[in-house]
Amino acid sequence: MMTRAENIPFDTVLDTPEAWLDTLMDTYGLPLTKLTFSYVQDWGKAQEIVQDVFLTCYEQYNKRHTIQSYKAWIYRIAINRAKDYYRTAWFKRIIVKDSGFDQQLPTALHAEHFVIQQEINEALAHAVLTLPTKYREVILLYYYEELSVHEVATILRCGDNTVKTRLKRAREKLKTLLEGRD
After folding, report:
1. 170 with 138: CB under 8 angstroms?
2. Are 141 and 39 a contacting pair, CB within 8 Å?
3. Contacts of 43 (CB under 8 A, 6+ apart)
4. What number of helices (H) and strands (E) belong to the chain?
5. Left, alpha or beta for 105 (phi > 0: left; psi -120 to 50: alpha)?
6. What whole-number distance in Å separates Cα of residue 78 and Cα of residue 32?
7. How far is Cα 17 from Cα 77, in angstroms, rounded to an integer?
8. What pTM value is reported for the model?
9. How far apart are CA 28 and CA 26, in angstroms?
10. Which of 48, 10, 3 shows the shortest CA–CA distance to 29?
11. Tell me, what's the pLDDT at 108?
12. Cβ atoms 23, 8 nearer than 8 A
């Protein structure tokens, strides 16, 4: 499955920094916000971090020709910024939680089925968010962002086998967390 981001030649068609940044924001805005939310557990803070990521991208406009994979590059920046958030004095004083995984109502589903599916999705999202960071990030990148094992390894700067091991352990932890639920 080819994503929209893979179809856009960021470095050739877009000749102004503003057009380039607009395309990056349209393509990666929401996925990056969801990714950073998984780290910081605060939707507003996640949006602030993503704005900072796009500011960094704007400042790196002149280096756009050297970037081999825009997706890996921008996800790496977002992950680093989210991890930096934990190092701030503000975070050490205040911990805020917010719900950010909003689901849209599919029109074809009956209301009862939707409610059941919503509960399952919320339980799964909650379980994923309770995983340790190293497991949570591989689950989110592999399943939610639909990246390959190699792409996840590139973003996280680790080996393919490390990603496979973390995925296996994360699945086991999720299974344990979700056992006992209907």
Report:
1. yes
2. no
3. 33, 37, 98, 99, 100
4. 9, 0
5. beta
6. 7
7. 18
8. 0.57
9. 6
10. 48
11. 47
12. yes
Question: Exposed/middle/buried for 164, CB within 10 Å: 0-12, 13-18, 19+?
Answer: middle
Question: Which helix (H) or strand (E) covers residue 162, if one does?
Answer: helix 160-178
**pLDDT less than 70: residues of the chain:** 1-14, 86-118, 121, 180-182
List all residues 6 or more positions away from 112 whose beta carbon is below 8 Å from its beta carbon. Answer: none
Name the packing angle between helices 149-156 and 160-178 (round to 10°). 100
**Token couple for 130:** 């309770």
- The DSSP symbol for 13 reads T
Structure tokens at 148: 């390959």
pLDDT of res. 41: 79
**Calpha distance 164→102 (Å, rounded):** 28
Residue 34 Cα distances to 17, 26, 73, 75, 102, angstroms:
25, 14, 17, 11, 10
Please tell me the distance from the alpha carbon of residue 23 to that of residue 163, in angstroms, as a whole number. Answer: 29
Q: What are the tokens at 107? A: 């029109």
CA 58: distance to chain centroid? 20
Residues 6+ apart with CB under 8 A from 74: 24, 28, 32, 53, 57
Residues 6-34: pLDDT tens digits?
444 554 456 788 888 899 899 999 999 98
Rounded Cα–Cα distance for residues 151 and 69 (Å)? 9
